[in-house]
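Hi all, long-time lurker, first post. I run a small reading group and we've been trying to get comfortable going from sequence to structure in the token notation. Rather than ask abstract questions, I figured I'd post a concrete chain and ask someone more experienced to write out its structure so we can walk through it together at our next meeting. Sequence below, copied exactly:
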Amino acid sequence: MSEFSQDIEVSGHLIDSSILTKIFDKIMDLQGEFQVEEIEIGKKKTDKSFARLSIVGKDQKHLDDILKTIYRLGAVSKIQNEIELKKSPKDYVMPDNFYSTTNNQTHVFHKGSWILVERMMMDKCIIVKGKKAFCVPVRDVRKGDQIIVGERGIKITPPERPREGVNVFEFMGSSSSSERPTQHIAKQVADDIYNTKKNGGKIVIVGGPAIVHTGADDAVSELINSGYIDGVLAGNALAVHDIEYATLGTSLGMNVHDATLAFHGHRNHMDTINAVFKAGSIANMVKSKKLTKGIMYECVKNKVPFVLAGSIRDDGPLPDVITDITQAQSEYKKVLKGANMVIMISTMLHSIATGNMLPAKVKVIVIDISQPTVTKLMDRGTWQAMGIVSDVGAFLPMVAQQLRKKK
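-- Answer (accepted) --
Happy to help. Here is the structure in token form:
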């Protein structure tokens, strides 16, 4: 065997989750070689499998490049080495060669034992304090923090394929095709929403203004009112157009129910912003009964937290909009904490931002009429997302209708 070789191990549901296949593919893509030294396949669907491979590179750098890649797929070195820690040289600065995280469950080998990394997110660093390890964004790094560098002593556990029976995530695979039986998918999504809440789960919606433009506002409002939604994340636009629709019946000056242009409709969204400023806040508008329906109304009425993140595009923005983007990001994370399912609806940028904050175990549904938008989210790294390419104005009312039947 070449001197540039190393044994690695991998365990879990290797076959049905395709972990072993992905490892083989990556080794070959990088022109490496491997030999299966030992393999044990689980005999029942609940049994885990195990494999030990010898990986061979052309030289040490080539071998290291292969190992770095397959470690991120769930492989670990047969000989466990302690993580390497270096201190942050100053606030907001990570040491060179810092370990950049994935959104998969991660353990680190420290002082002879594996420690679970808390607050898992992608594209962050890992700080170790005592016997605990945390995933931390660069803005939270402080001088002297002990930060993991390199890839040594890190174990990633990719999420397993759902095993609880056929739900929308198994039904759709990892596809974002529009050629699907929409009514059936709507029923599957409704079933999964219902079962998640029945089991005490937390569901968060990330939404864009197309929810209002396409006529899905009433359906989303109904989901919130019925107790299925535990948080709403959006920007200025969703709130403005939702309140415009609730108070004036239009969205961007168009009558939502018949798509005709309203008289002087071009100023309706500005009138709406002005009305919210007159009230002082969205909550005050509800309290004074100037706002009596819609997504924002249902959030206030049902005490469902919402966060509106600002953008350079915004008109106004509304007084409730957080214009400090780092503060908005922090508030998004608070709402997302403990989420079991996130439904992303017609908002590419907010969806990508949210996806970057989620651990891989969180179920994600992306609904958008534009297939490239759905694909882009998956390409950005939220690979656990399942895409539904459909008109949200037609799809969401179907989901609401299916949930209504369960009452």
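A couple of things your group might point at:
Residues 163-179 have pLDDT under 50 and may be disordered.
The two ends are 65 Å apart (CA to CA).
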